[in-house]
Amino acid sequence: MRDIPEFFKEKLQEAKVQFERTIDCKHTEFDDLYPYMSEQPQFFWYKRYVAWQELLTIVKLADELGLSWKDQFEESQLAFIEKKVLDAKVLDEWYGKKRTEA
CA 44 to CA 22: how far, in whole Å? Predict the structure, then answer.
């Protein structure tokens, strides 16, 4: 049997990376599921929402199990996760304001 806290830590890290890849418009597993959709402009928003929901679901499960997960995120990212709403500000400031000002 796997160590549950370690399992969730791995899954959370995978979900975080997947979401960040959508922010950076990089290839994700979702692209492989719907290769014919990649030419549609709304596809990029849709796959971001899917990755965001996956991240929130894993966070919710970790919370329900009483597992620590917050140490994998910056304070600003935690605030976005707590609000649960994916909007342009999340996408623009996920890596911090300095990145968007550069």
Answer: 7
How many helices (DSSP H) and strands (DSSP E) are in the chain? Answer: 6, 0
pTM of the model: 0.89
How do the domains of the chain map onto residue ranges?
Answer: 4-101
Measured from the Cβ of residue 67, the count of other Cβ atoms closer than 10 Å reads 16
CA-to-CA distance for 61 and 59, rounded, in angstroms? 5
Which residues are within 8 A (CB) of 70 and not within 5 positions of it... i.e. 6 or more apart? 78
**With DSSP H G I counted as helix, E B as strand and the rest as coil, what are the percentages for the chain, rounded to 5?**
75, 0, 25
At residue 99, the pLDDT reads 59
